[in-house]
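Q: I'm building a small set of examples for a reading group on sequence design. Run inverse folding on the following structure and report the sequence directly after it, with nothing in between.
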């Protein structure tokens, strides 16, 4: 029975990934800060799921769990995932998103050498590594030019994966563009929008404050992107793979789709722009070319933009109805 270890199992991607692995008969181990974290309840705590409460920055703690579980597949998802938060604490962001990943890579290589079985590692890289990209759409060879502490921390981890791949570890980067679901917390603009729209339609909220409505992002469905991670782990050759839809939309487009779902065509009087929510440096248009993932992994997205937004709004309406 294969064994998988997931850092960040309680996050949006980690919880979907654990569900997928468990459904395929894996023994799944997950690293958490607190075993009551959000999204863990969705897993139902089956017998083949084991949680390890670990401070990722504690000396040797992460390495001990990797050695104990001796995984066949290791998924590096734990991160400070908010770009806004990275500006407030860039040092902590660098430590968690960068240094922790290097320790994980080293621990995986050590297990592989000592246990005598291959360890396949997949790191959740990010489109934010491209930052002020000089080309659109971005491809795997686009120059890495991060424009935020978050992007810089992810770039360090991304490049480190390549270093360990050179040492013989089956280590891949899935370069994930924005991907959403009802499991996103409201600290992310997409879920902030869908939850607010649901409350506005129910008369529980008056309006929404947002940042730059013209920012363009390539949004996909989170379970699709988790599927790409699993395909990367099973691929004959490790590599870097952009995971994206290849279609970009603005924040205003997201608002259009969300309000349309509740029958509101004109939202201009319900949305205000707050300069506090505008990034110090906004990246160039984020648009990914996933041709390599389609060709080498056989991956493709299954949920379009309008359906994604509708599912999130419907979920938030259901929460209100409860």
């Amino acid at each position: 029975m294969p064994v998988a270890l997931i850092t960040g199992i309680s996050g949006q991607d980690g919880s979907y990934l654990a569900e997928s692995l468990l459904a395929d008969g894996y023994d799944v181990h997950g690293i958490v800060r607190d075993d009551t974290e959000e999204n863990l309840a969705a897993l139902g705590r089956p017998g083949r799921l084991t949680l390890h409460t670990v401070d990722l920055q504690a000396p040797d703690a992460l390495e001990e769990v990797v050695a104990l579980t001796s995984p066949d597949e290791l998924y590096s998802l734990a991160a400070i995932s908010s770009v806004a938060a990275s500006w407030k604490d860039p040092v902590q962001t660098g430590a968690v998103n960068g240094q922790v990943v290097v320790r994980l890579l080293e621990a995986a290589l050590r297990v592989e050498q000592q246990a005598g079985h291959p360890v396949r590692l997949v790191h959740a890289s990010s489109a934010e590594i491209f930052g002020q990209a000089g080309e659109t759409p971005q491809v795997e060879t686009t120059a890495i030019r991060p424009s935020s502490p978050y992007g810089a921390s992810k770039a360090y981890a991304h490049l480190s994966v390549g270093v360990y791949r050179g040492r013989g570890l089956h280590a891949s980067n899935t370069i994930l563009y924005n991907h959403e679901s009802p499991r996103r917390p409201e600290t992310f603009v997409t879920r902030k929008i869908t939850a607010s729209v649901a409350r506005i339609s129910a008369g529980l909220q008056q309006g929404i404050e947002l940042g730059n409505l013209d920012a363009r992002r390539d949004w996909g469905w989170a379970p699709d992107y988790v599927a790409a991670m699993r395909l990367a782990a099973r691929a004959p050759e490790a590599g870097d793979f952009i995971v994206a839809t290849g279609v970009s939309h603005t924040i205003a487009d997201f608002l259009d789709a969300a309000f349309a779902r509740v029958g509101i065509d004109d939202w201009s009087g319900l949305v205000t722009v707050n300069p506090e929510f505008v990034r110090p440096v906004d990246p160039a248009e984020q648009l990914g070319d996933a041709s390599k993932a389609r060709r080498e992994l056989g991956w493709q997205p299954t949920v379009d933009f309008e359906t994604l937004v509708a599912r999130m709004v419907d979920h938030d309406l259901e929460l209100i109805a409860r």
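The chain has a mean pLDDT of 94.
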